[in-house]
Design brief:
alpha/beta; nine-stranded mixed β-sheet; 301 residues
Length: 301
């Protein structure tokens, strides 16, 4: 009989690209992972991995087994969810992965709500821009607070359920003594010094696309993915920034925020979990708290 833990190790190695990286993720030694994978190879009687430069890759048999492993692991997760649903109680632990730009106005308020409503629940937070949905499929996290800019296709990995939380527009950020309270035409930014993310990022691509729709290609003065740096440059009067509304406190001293009137640029904030037919009370509670925080942040509460 196939060992579920070994199947999970195979999936993790395939996703991480090496036994060393997988072992680090699983908090095991590389030797322990290699030993378990060797046992899995003996169970099936065929090689599952092959060297691929400095990494490893699945053999044809490994790819076939991994397809079945995905379904087996999903079924195990669904069984666990079904039992939790019958119990109907929020568990003791959960792991949330979230973007840095959501911490102040969504993650922190949501965690405060959870601490009040479910004091037995300890939520561990992974604050990162990288590969959040992959961590979800590998079981490293339970809930992802992610984003998708509207110029990108709506797609989620197999086995992942996505719940929209909030449509979050970018706003124009300037020094408090610059501009007015009216909405800004994106084309009017063409002659200004801009602080924007690199064009290799999703946000940078969305800004580039929006500016081109407005009739110009931006030549930014400052390029940084650090939103704090963008806002600091805007506050100093050195640049005009384009920043997601939920990423900044509108009451931040020294800045003015204005909506874009002609070519709005938006990101969708969403909560993602592993797909299951039975609702998990713990992840349901985390998503409910995020949804409340999103709505309160939208109305400025």
């Amino acid at each position: 009989m196939l060992d579920i833990r070994r199947l999970h190790m195979l999936k993790t190695v395939a996703a991480r690209g090496s036994i060393t990286a997988a072992a680090r993720s699983l908090e095991l030694t590389a030797g322990a992972v290699s030993q378990q994978l060797a046992a899995l190879r003996n169970d099936v009687g065929v090689d599952l991995l092959r060297p691929d430069g400095r990494t490893v890759a699945l053999t044809e048999a490994g790819r076939v087994l991994l397809e079945h492993a995905d379904r087996i692991l999903a079924a195990v997760a669904e069984a666990e969810n079904a039992v939790e649903a019958v119990k109907g109680t929020v568990g003791a632990t959960a792991t949330l992965a979230a973007l840095p730009s959501t911490v102040a106005r969504m993650v922190a308020p949501a965690l405060t709500t959870l601490a009040s409503c479910h004091p037995q629940l300890a939520v561990t937070c992974l604050i990162t821009d990288q590969a959040q949905l992959r961590e979800l499929t590998l079981g490293t996290v339970d809930v992802v607070l992610g984003q998708r800019y509207h110029h990108l296709p709506a797609a989620a990995p197999r086995g992942v359920s996505v719940s929209p939380l909030l449509d979050d527009p970018l706003v124009v950020v300037t020094a408090a003594d610059r501009g007015g309270d009216r909405p800004v035409l994106l084309r009017d930014l063409a002659a200004l010094d801009l602080a924007v993310p690199p064009p290799t990022t999703d946000c940078g691509q969305a800004i580039l696309q929006g500016c081109r729709q407005a009739g110009f290609t931006p030549t930014p003065r400052y390029i940084t993915a650090d939103i704090t740096a963008q806002v600091t440059l805007a506050r100093a009067g050195l640049a005009t920034a384009l920043v997601p509304r939920m990423a900044i406190d509108p009451n931040t001293p020294g800045i003015r925020t204005s909506p874009i009137a002609d070519h709005p640029i938006r990101r969708l904030l969403f909560a993602a979990t592993r797909h299951g037919d039975s609702p998990n009370p713990t992840t349901t509670a985390v998503i409910a708290a995020l949804r409340t925080a999103a709505q309160e942040g939208k109305t400025g509460k």
